[in-house]
Each structure stands twice: as C-alpha cells, then as structure tokens.
Design goal:
It is a multi-pass membrane protein. InterPro entries: ABC-2_transporter_component. It is found in: Cell membrane. Pfam families: ABC2_membrane_2 (PF12679). Keywords: Cell membrane, Membrane, Transmembrane, Transmembrane helix. With about 250 residues, the protein is mainly α. The protein has one domain. Helix content is about 80%, strand content about 0%. It contains 14 helices and no strands. Helix 9 packs across helix 10 and helix 9 packs parallel to helix 14. It is globular, with a radius of gyration of 19 Å. The two termini are about 25 Å apart.
Length: about 250
C-alpha cells in the first residue's frame, strides 16, 4: 500500500501543482456558475415546479461541460508517460500493474471530486445570499452530487482505458469524448423509437439522463449504483489488461 500511496500522490501533484489542473478547475467552476445563474434566471422569468437543483443540472450547458471533463482529466494519465517513455520505466520497476492503474484512477477521481466542491458551495451561497426558503430539498442536492459521482466513476474509468490504448493525448481525448457522446445519445433511443419496443427497459437502464432526472428529483435507486460501478470496474479491468500486456511485451 505504501507504493500505491506514493504513486497516487505523484499523480495528484500532476493535477494540483500544474497550471493545467487549475485551468480545468477554473473552467468547471465557471461553467457551474453559469448553469446555476441560468437556472436562477429561469426561476425569475417563469415559475417552475422543479427545484433549483433539478433545473441547474438540466440546463443545455451542463452536459456540454460535464462530458468534456473526462477527456481533460484522463487523456494524459497513460498516453503521456507512454510517449515520453516513463511508463516503460515504471512498469519495469518493482510495482504491481494494479498499483499503477488504480493509483492513476484514484488520483483522477480525487481531482474530479474536487471539481464539484465549488458547485456545492455555490448552492450554499445561494441560500445564504437570498435568505429565502430553500429552493431545493437536501434530498435533491444530495441526489445530484451522488449521481455525478457515480457517472464520474464510470466515465473516468473509460477515460483511463482510452489513455492506456494510445501514446497520443489528443487521440485519447477524442476517443474518450467519442465514447461518452455515444453513451449520451443512447439515452435518446426510447424517445426516437418509443417506449413500446422490446429494448426500451435496457436503454432506460443505461441512460445517464434518466438517472440524472431521477436523482436530482430527490429519489434514490440502487440500480444506477450497480450499473455505473460495474461499468467502472469493467473499464478498469480492461485498462489493467492493456497495461499488463505492455508490461510483459516490454
């Protein structure tokens, strides 16, 4: 575990001690603020029955910046080290493959979690600044941040896999965003084909939009937990196989 902690700390320094990490944090914080202000403007102009949390996480801007988070935080994890030759050196050191893979994934998830702290603060500041009755329930706020953590666990693992497959950060980023966009649009299959076709329950089950709608409404369902964590484990398993293959090939 000592080696795992050392490797994780090394990756965390790559996020928090470089300008690139702070640029990502600033970008996401600004986008979160714009999404919240857009939702507040909607509340001011037109009375809505949904909570402020629900509207904030359903603005058109949300999915744009949300999906772009993952290629940004994962594209360099393996591909940059493969390009520079340091991955080969690391894999010949007395460390296990799983320590390399999970240390990078853990660091990425810690940084990803950090990205959502400003968003949580913004909702709390809204309550403090307006001094009005809450425009959202604790269940809706907790559900929203629970589902973004679940989706983040799965999508970060997919980004790790994409980064492990190539030595180019650009290709890794394009591959990641491509997979996530495909996954996103699969959520619209039932809207196109209707609810009556045989595969509708499956597409509901894998739909990120469906789960986001449910959790931001203040409800909890264990099925998305199983789905996203299973997807994360499967992507990490494939990442392990790719990295382990490179280790024995070299």
């Amino acid at each position: 575990m000592r080696l795992f902690r050392i490797l994780t700390f090394k990756e965390l320094k790559g996020y928090f001690l470089t300008p690139f990490g702070w640029v990502i944090l600033a970008f996401v914080t600004i986008m979160q603020g714009v999404s919240l202000s857009t939702a507040m403007k909607g509340f001011r102009d037109t009375p809505v029955r949904d909570s402020l949390v629900y509207v904030t996480f359903h603005t058109p801007l949300f999915w744009f910046y949300f999906l772009f988070i993952f290629p940004l935080i994962t594209m360099r994890l393996f591909s940059e080290e493969e390009r520079s030759g340091t991955l080969e050196t690391l894999l010949t050191a007395p460390v296990r493959t799983w320590q390399v893979v999970f240390s990078k994934y853990t660091a990425a998830m810690i940084f990803y979690t950090t990205l959502w702290i400003p968003g949580l603060i913004q909702f709390k500041m809204f309550q403090w600044a307006t001094d009005l009755p809450p425009a959202f329930s604790p269940g809706a706020l907790g559900g929203a941040f629970t589902v973004v953590m679940l989706m983040g666990a799965a999508f970060t693992a997919i980004g790790c896999l994409a980064s492990a497959l190539t030595s180019s950060q650009i290709i890794a980023g394009i591959f990641t965003i491509g997979l996530l966009v495909i996954h996103y649009f699969l959520g619209y299959v039932t809207r196109i084909w209707g609810e009556s076709f045989a595969g509708a329950p499956f597409f509901h089950y894998i739909s990120s939009q469906h789960h986001l709608h449910y959790f931001t409404s203040g409800f909890f369902d264990s099925r998305p937990v199983v789905y996203f964590l299973s997807l994360a484990l499967f992507a990490l398993f494939l990442t392990y196989q790719v990295v382990d293959y490179r280790r024995w090939r070299n």
